[in-house]
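TASK: fixed-backbone design
INPUT:
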């Protein structure tokens, strides 16, 4: 990641920028996948709560990161300052992590289970399907809400783009609260509740032309979709027969595919009809996720 960030912020033009971003994307995905697998293994029964808490921290950093870039851009430091701060943070994190390297050693029994190449349970693929639906809804909301605000709320491009932060704030709140709830409430019950909150938030945003109400609806949509990714990964792990690494890897792949396709599907529908009608893809995939949870419930002790 540090190498990719250095290439991205260095000289070299468009080619170097695209190469740097590709390196950052690849390596950051590896960090996310392995961190998810580690937390679920290390925290055991508290894994879903820990993973949700970690993603709440990620949402918080997601709010602060653009701020650091903006501060740099508004001063003599330049926009690259925010990304150089990330390089420093990565180096510091790795130095601190190495002090506790024994914690990250994989027990032989766990390793043997992970490299077993038998078929995964059918319930695992149901979990992956529901996770893909959550990711599809999340990416569609993040990438197209600004267009909804311009189209329905009559906001300018800058105001609409800034207002999308309401979703990130909602995600932060949802994950912070969800991490505590996940300590004692079954995963499926939380996911079903989150779907209902997300649907209500979406309906609030979709059915009005008031920009304030749309932003409020997007906030509650963010609260609803907040736990979909972390608890979706935890659910996939619980249904994988103990093969947490494989579950984390395939969950990330499914999330990337769903998150990559859904905005393009929404865009194609927007071209065919309009953004307002195209946005109905969000409740559709959330309802599909709810149906999957009902068809293949998670058996928890």
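OUTPUT:
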């Amino acid at each position: 990641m540090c190498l990719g960030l250095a290439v991205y912020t260095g000289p070299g033009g468009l080619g170097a920028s695209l190469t740097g971003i590709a390196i950052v994307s690849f390596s950051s995905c590896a960090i996310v996948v392995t961190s998810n697998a580690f937390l679920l293994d290390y925290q055991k029964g508290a894994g879903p709560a820990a993973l949700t808490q970690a993603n709440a921290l990620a949402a918080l950093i997601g709010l602060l990161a653009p701020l650091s870039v903006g501060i740099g851009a508004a001063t003599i430091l330049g926009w690259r300052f925010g990304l150089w701060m990330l390089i420093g943070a990565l180096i510091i994190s790795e130095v601190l992590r190495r002090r506790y390297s024994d914690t990250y050693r994989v027990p032989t029994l766990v390793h043997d289970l992970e490299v077993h190449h038998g078929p995964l349970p059918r319930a695992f693929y149901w979990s992956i399907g529901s996770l893909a639906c959550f990711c599809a809804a999340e990416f569609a909301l993040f990438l197209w809400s600004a267009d909804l605000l311009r189209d329905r709320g009559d906001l300018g491009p800058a105001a609409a783009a800034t207002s999308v932060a309401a979703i990130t704030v909602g995600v932060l709140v949802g994950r912070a609260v969800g991490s505590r709830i996940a300590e004692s409430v079954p995963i499926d019950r939380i996911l079903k509740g989150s779907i209902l909150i997300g649907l209500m938030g979406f309906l609030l945003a979709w059915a009005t032309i008031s920009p304030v109400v749309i932003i409020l609806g997007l906030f509650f949509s963010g609260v609803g979709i907040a736990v979909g990714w972390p608890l979706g990964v935890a659910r996939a792990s619980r249904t994988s027969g103990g093969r947490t690494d494989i579950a984390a890897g395939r969950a990330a792949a499914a999330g990337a595919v769903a998150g990559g396709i859904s905005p393009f599907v929404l865009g194609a529908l927007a071209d065919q009809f309009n953004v307002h009608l195209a946005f109905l893809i969000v409740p559709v995939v959330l309802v599909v996720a709810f149906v999957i949870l009902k068809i293949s419930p998670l058996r928890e002790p």
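COMMENT: The mean pLDDT is 89.
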